[in-house]
Amino acid sequence: MQKMENTSTIATPDIPRVERLRLHDTVVEHLRKLIIEGVLSPGVKLNERELCETLGISRTPLREAFKVLAAEGLIEIAPNRGASVARMTEKEIREMFELMSALEAFSGELAAERMTPVELAEIKALHYAMLACRAQQDLPGYYARNQAIHDRINEAARNGALRQTYVAINRRLMALRFRSNFHADKWDRAIAEHEQMIDALEKHDGKRLGEILRKHLLAKRDAVLQIHAEPADNAPTN
User: Fold this and answer.
1) Engineering a disulfide at 157: which of 89, 98, 107, 199 sits with its beta carbon 3.0 to 4.6 angstroms away?
2) Do 77 and 116 lie in a common domain?
3) Model's pTM, two decimal places?
């Protein structure tokens, strides 16, 4: 009797593809962080060869990351000129922060009504961690927790359309929001405003929280515009 061959195939995970996607995400996150923290300054041309050597990657994942960051408005890609970190004009800064102040205020109004006790506890924990970073002069750590608080409030609003718009706009403003705390007095003012936010959340006072968030973002706008107007050699430090 002739033995029949088994021609069936067994599906196996596409491991190389998963690894490539993970690499792509890692490169995007790494470059985004460098832009946010000012390591890659606005207007700086991105040298592909140097970045590939620094990150230990080939040009393909780097260029894929460039496309993602360009779609987010963090970098600009010009034909025959390569990529550079995006630089916002004063008019763009004003308009973007005005829009973000409205988005944050609306998020606060909805979140005060819809936030669960567990979500509130998470925000309070982030706030205390943020205070610890301030005491240690850890600006990156402070900023990460600061942004996480704003993000949690937006998520607690439970509005998908608002969430999508918020994320897109906030990505363009992250680097500017990071720089808005370079002055110690502005840093401490932001902390005081965050304490007011938590108080409003605990009292489920959406109107008050919305107003606090609106003023909070407009204060950041003013801080950013002040830095934007200063010469590069006079840029403030902690």
Assistant:
1) 107
2) no
3) 0.81
The three-state secondary structure class of 89 is: coil
pLDDT, one tens digit per residue, over 56-84 is 999 999 999 999 999 999 999 998 889 99
Q: Where are the alpha helices (DSSP H) in the chain?
A: 15-36, 48-55, 59-71, 90-114, 117-135, 139-156, 160-179, 184-202, 206-229
- The two most distant CA atoms of the chain are separated, in Å, by 89
Give me 149's structure tokens: 């608080």
CB 153 within 8 A of CB 103: no
Q: Are residues 80 and 95 both part of a single domain?
A: no
Same domain? For 53 and 164 the reply is no
Residues 83 and 63 sit within 8 Å (Cβ to Cβ):
no
Specify if 236 maps to a domain.
Answer: no
| Range of the structural domain that residue 147 is part of | 90-229
- CA 103 and chain centroid, separation: 15
Sign (positive or negative) of CA dihedral 36, 40, 41, 45: negative
81 lies in the same domain as 101: no
